[in-house]
Design goal:
The protein has 431 residues and is an alpha+beta fold. It has a domain of 176 residues: Glutamine Phosphoribosylpyrophosphate, subunit 1, domain 1, CATH 3.60.20. It is 49% helix and 21% strand. The protein has a 5-stranded antiparallel sheet with strand order 14-1-2-15-16, with helices on one face.
Amino acid sequence: MLMNLEGVALAADGAVTLIDMAGDHMVVRLSQSGVKKVFLLQEEGPIGVMIYNGAQFGGLPWKTVFETYRTFAAPPATVPDAVRSLRDFLSVSGSVMDPNKRLPVSKDTDLANLVHFIDATVMHYTSILERHAAAVEELGVKDLPGVHQDGLEQLALEVSRDFEYLGDQAILREGAPERAKVGTPTRAFEQLLASYLEPLLKEILSRRLGKASGGADVLKRLHGIVETALVTDWIPPGAVYTGLVVTGFGRDEVSPGYVNLEVLGSIGGVLKHRVVDAYRTTGDRPSSVESFAMNGPVQAFLDGARPEFRLQAYSATVDELIQRLKPVMERVARKDPALAAEVEDDLVEAIFEAPARGLGNAVRAHWDNVSSNLVLSVRSLPASGLGENAARLLRLAVLEHELTGNRTVSKPITILEMSKGRYRFIDDPQL
């Protein structure tokens, strides 16, 4: 997405991820190409929307969802108003409990979304336990508080505070606020949790951890954490969601705005989602360049490193720190076991957080350098120029994936150019 004070352009390829259920619990992920990912949300304005990652909502293509939404929604005054209206529509219409049946969603939609959320949460909790247990074992520290207790405290913190993630490693930002609430629990939501949460959590925890699942105390604590997480904007790393980029001009706006949110789905009339970013162009921030989803080459250009390289660099640094500190901790434990136990938690936290913070600082420094030129060049372009430059950036990802045979990015390409009162779609431009 490229945006300035006069216009905005969205550019997307034609590959998406599909999610389905095999039996009661297994999540199956498939990649499908040839799917349109850029749509007009409101003609008046105009306001457009681009999807990434997921292709469906409640078993329906997003194209159907947006077309149905337009029949109910009045033209919004602002882009944030459009997002609130769409969010309210998805909360109710995305559930089988919708009394008006505005969307013909799959009959298992609410339960499938709950199962997927619990499964992704337990999978993330497992990764927390594995990291902590491995670090403790490598450092040679004995007789420490239970790994489950430390893992539960970490997970409880993640679902209540606004963390950043590098892979599945949570990095607490300085002054991070509490997580936003995503809605008020409905009667249908409460009934769904009363019927399914405990047995699902018990079964999935046992399947993921087996005899190491921790017993009734862990189950009870995890039950409370999941209940809290379901009504905050936390989405587990590894969960399948659809990203929505809503941008353009509201009825009363003369410059474009943008909201990026991630939508997992409706659970008993509560839309499980997260607002990632939102702003409107102003004199102080007259232009912007944003990239989403399978954007490795674009991200390397903007951030200085691909996401997977950053994760590999992070993991290698953590491993090296553990190896270097292991003999030190062994010596401390021999001389003063109490001191070793006292510093272990702080040391493990530093081992995992310091490399991530360093990488984050390096990425921000590179972005500041790139943006000083790129964002400046975008500032004065008309909508057509924004579309051309958006296509050039997308070309980086398309060419790489064509050369490697990776189908997660593919044609056709769609461009949506918007200025106040005007819009133009360009399908499959010459890249």
